């Protein structure tokens, strides 16, 4: 495993460059860059098609006060297109995403956080769904305030969200952050398949789980005693494929909200199935045992289905605008 980018470069090329980049954080940054690029691209396409319109932006009271004191003139308002607000959305997504991811992870692993309070400020231990829910809520509130069509914005963001999640999963796998599956006792289906693609022990994982590696000294000297399913890599491959599906059909869907509804359904189904072989804490409710991700993914599936049904009714006239 490669806790830092320096570890990865050393293994690939044989030289050590002490870079201050954690592998997981590096891929999260790449995910944000890719998602931002695709979101801007989609917003511009919808603007050219007349599906999104600019809004007049007026100076704030602070600017008016400053102008009155200095004798300068103040712009009476300029047109701002939705794609020009993506950088602000990115800041909201970054802050809300990290806060939500940490919050939901804390709710899921409360005892661990009480034992190790320093985990509250650590960059590890992030729950995707927590970040998705809080970041999406923040961006939708911002879009409402700026009078951006929220359904068109959601559709524009759907492919970006899917590929961003896929790229982030590469960071989980390569750093060995503890997001892996249950033990995999089965032999490889065919010879030549790499161990890390079928059943892996995550040596030198960043979460320091497992048993000590003989002869290893210093940090990251643990390896899992039994090979497990590398589900983070599975999710990368699945979500990359789902991204291409969304990207191909995005121009064919004419109903605002449908593409986002399809994304939500895909996301819920994908994660629910992965949870069947994923190591995670389980909640007990009567005779039912389920993980936080299973509960949220089921909710997302139902929510996505509801979006598809309700947006269909709006188009057919069963529900009036």
TrEMBL record:
Binding-site residues for a 1,2-diacyl-sn-glycero-3-phospho-(1'-sn-glycerol), renumbered to this chain: 169
Keyword Repeat: no
InterPro entries: Lgt
Pathway assigned in UniProt: Protein modification; lipoprotein biosynthesis (diacylglyceryl transfer)
Pfam families membership: LGT (PF01790)
Topology of the protein relative to the lipid bilayer: Multi-pass membrane protein
GO annotations of cellular component type: plasma membrane
Example GO molecular function: phosphatidylglycerol-prolipoprotein diacylglyceryl transferase activity
Keyword terms of this UniProt record: Cell membrane, Membrane, Transferase, Transmembrane, Transmembrane helix
Primary location class: membrane
Highest taxon listed in the record's lineage: Bacteria
Function: Catalyzes the transfer of the diacylglyceryl group from phosphatidylglycerol to the sulfhydryl group of the N-terminal cysteine of a prolipoprotein, the first step in the formation of mature lipoproteins.
Membership in a protein family: Belongs to the Lgt family.
Listed PANTHER family: PHOSPHATIDYLGLYCEROL--PROLIPOPROTEIN DIACYLGLYCERYL TRANSFERASE (PTHR30589:SF0), PROLIPOPROTEIN DIACYLGLYCERYL TRANSFERASE (PTHR30589)
Listed name of the protein: Phosphatidylglycerol--prolipoprotein diacylglyceryl transferase
Organism in which the protein naturally occurs: Mucilaginibacter rubeus
Taxonomic path: Bacteria, Pseudomonadati, Bacteroidota, Sphingobacteriia, Sphingobacteriales
Encoding gene per record: lgt
